Amino acid sequence: MFQDFKLNGDRPVVIQVKEYIQRLIIKGALQADQKLPSTREMSGLLKVSRNTVIAAYESLEDDGFAYAIPGKGSYVAAMSGHSAAEGSSLDGSASLQIDWKARMNRYAISAVELDIMKQGIRGSKGIISFTSIAPDEHLFDLGDVRRAFMDRMAIEGQVLLNYGYAKGYKPLIEYLMRYMENKGVDLSGKDMLITSGFTEGFDIALSALRPESRSGAAICENPTHHTALKNLKLQGFQINGIPMERDGISTEKLEQVLKQGLTFDLAYLTPSYHNPTGIVMSPEKRSAVMKLMTQYGVPVIEDGFNEELRYSGAHIAPLIATAGQGNGVIYIGSFSKVLFPGLRVGWVLADRALIGHLESIKRARSIHTSTIDQSILYQYLLNGNFDKYVKKARTEYKRKYELTKACCEAYLPDAELTGDGGLHLFLTLPKDVNTRELLAACTEQGVIFTPGDRFFIQDGEGMNTLRLGFSRVADEHIEQGIRVIGEQAIKLINAK
Amino acid sequence: MFQDFKLNGDRPVVIQVKEYIQRLIIKGALQADQKLPSTREMSGLLKVSRNTVIAAYESLEDDGFAYAIPGKGSYVAAMSGHSAAEGSSLDGSASLQIDWKARMNRYAISAVELDIMKQGIRGSKGIISFTSIAPDEHLFDLGDVRRAFMDRMAIEGQVLLNYGYAKGYKPLIEYLMRYMENKGVDLSGKDMLITSGFTEGFDIALSALRPESRSGAAICENPTHHTALKNLKLQGFQINGIPMERDGISTEKLEQVLKQGLTFDLAYLTPSYHNPTGIVMSPEKRSAVMKLMTQYGVPVIEDGFNEELRYSGAHIAPLIATAGQGNGVIYIGSFSKVLFPGLRVGWVLADRALIGHLESIKRARSIHTSTIDQSILYQYLLNGNFDKYVKKARTEYKRKYELTKACCEAYLPDAELTGDGGLHLFLTLPKDVNTRELLAACTEQGVIFTPGDRFFIQDGEGMNTLRLGFSRVADEHIEQGIRVIGEQAIKLINAK
């Protein structure tokens, strides 16, 4: 015994010694009330200092794996309830076996079925991947993030590490309220809830608004953000998709649908840099949409996605600003795409009474959002890093955006392009090009992208569309990748 | 105009100038195409440097709030869609008003009704409060936490700030798998999901196991953790409570309930330092409970709550270790009470197929848990800080535990005490003492605690019980506070 102990470099030696002995005890290799080798002996056996062994024995005693008899030495404690320590297993009857798959409800099964991360193709090494619309981590100003953390820890480290509030970290809420006010939002009667990113905020809002006696009914742009579609479906909503035009959702089609007299529980809209089409809804359409929603009394969930990533043109107010004192828009914002997705922080700005309910749901689900994440974000904003970073990110992404656009125009001349900013472009190819087939052909050539059909509401829609995320692709790969896509598209067209 | 600009100390001046002007534009005080004062002029008006104004104007242009005409100056951009900028409000029809309260479903309403944070008494300044069972932040080793963050950021800062995996941060998962193995758990066929604390893990598990065609049915200890009760209720479970005995749940009563032939979807159990009673389930009971669950095929959700805060006695294996190779126990762990509640990290260790489903639900709900939180925790563990901290915390809490116990024995001699460790004691007073009345009387004397009835399943149970959390109360206040509770209890008894 004790021959197989091996030190590895990355952890304190005393902990490695303790865990090694603990494991022997747990496995039953060391029996209850057996005397452990003296610290001097063990030190020789494991080739570690005697002080290390003394500390490891003490720690084992603290944790109840050993006990000391003064003047005699350390002994192994009886391991109660361990199946291994009590023979091959507890008597067979205690081996509780459950058929979990059979117990999964529709929600759990659908969550797997709709989980594109589990079905998607993974980019292997060396492949050129246009599937990501996450930011390029090489732009991250790590020094500023570190400083934000250290600054905040110095100010109130103890507060950050203890329980926070379900509603969110107060300084951050105040900051973001002012931030939204500076976008033209009338804050009267409104309040804010901090969530773990956009997704949690959206899911919480849906869970409160889902009707009980019937399926929910939602309106949204078609195509739209697939995570939003997934969550609407998981919460049982019927989805009525309205086609997109170059300046945003078709208000004509929207009115047609609203006129039919159906009850809609909500509309989910992404007016700026819409995912996947990248389209910015025009100011006129924003007014027209809000008029229709008011006329038919349909609440709006506004996705503030990428609003900060505009590369040119005048500032356009979000729908919640257009609504003035109206309380009917739930705005969900996040800096995930602009700043750091790893910081899971989003915010829901909405009517105060509604936020009160969402706050209680948030508390029931996860107590509160990481205070460290919230406080880093707050201090980073307060230190003035955000403006500086966004300026740098815009310059870099704008360049990539223009390069991607130029390459598409050169290599995919038949494709219709949309995308006014953000981190991706959306392509509509000629009707007879199936982008799933195109993807299969491109994958063989080492290039992948996101087929567009997954953003559409009905199966079989958008089969000739695709999304190109360019944020994490190097310039030369953008050109090379799009050339491959163009070549394969021509082959497909010629083969028909 | 420009007279009311005031600098405040904590933010970069250029951002303050930019936001000030932006606000004037948003509010319509500066009109579209109006020329802004020259940078020289504005510098004089606001009493800031000309370079600051130049930078602020540039930033306004970047954000689309202004535009420059070379050689002429900066002009206000047209604010599209802003209600304020277009007069008192957009035409009235666009002021979408929603009666949110009327639209809240049963889930949202219940979340508020069951939200004790919204109903509880708040400890005002100067009051002695025994309501918290959060750790004492004065024990936090902030230096070690800072070092863990800096170490990890240096190793892979870019990875930490970009998207992570729904399942969790891989190094942390590997660490915690080994940690659980060292508690005697057989890992074969098992997998782990990282969640935002215990609560999210529990809620996700319930949402997957909740049956569709009928109400769910759950067994749990009575009393038990009120957040767990809340989530079971919110997910529509009928709860069958089994009374507690000094060595844990009554196996006799448990068997009686199971024998009735009802279907139970799960049992929720806290075998160690049970909340609120503080009782540790004996090894014999652990085996007996697992035998019963196996016999009746009831899955177990084990709450690993405070398992690390044992002050004496031998190590006792968790139920998931007792189950050996059985896959029927879902173990949910967290270091929130032992380490830092602000780090929202918990883990679900369970059957691999089940974890696959829970992972997809986690992804649908919140993408993933804060990578910063996970990586700080990982590096803190790896650096060997955990053992050191737990040793210090145990010593401190054990002292407070013994003090609290001694004070209760002195001032509340008629109370039955339970609590073998952890951060609180549970008191059962004579039948005729109503602890809600007692709380009212004590509040007037500046002392508050948690009435015990909220931990019981049926209304009207446990009316003579209370929980004393001592972790954040100073020694002298423990003594003083319990003396007050004792005095008021005697008054109440004498008044009857």
TrEMBL record, chains A, B:
Give yes or no: UniProt keyword Transferase. Answer: yes
Cofactors demanded by this protein: pyridoxal 5'-phosphate
Q: Which GO terms describe its molecular function?
A: DNA binding; DNA-binding transcription factor activity; pyridoxal phosphate binding; transaminase activity
Supply the source organism for this entry: Paenibacillus pinisoli
Q: Keyword annotations for this protein?
A: Aminotransferase, DNA-binding, Pyridoxal phosphate, Transcription, Transcription regulation, Transferase
Similarity comment text for this entry: In the C-terminal section; belongs to the class-I pyridoxal-phosphate-dependent aminotransferase family.
Enumerate the spans annotated as HTH gntR-type domain.
11-79
Superkingdom to which the source organism belongs: Bacteria
Q: Which Pfam families does the record match to this protein?
A: Aminotran_1_2, GntR
What name does the UniProt record give this protein? PLP-dependent aminotransferase family protein
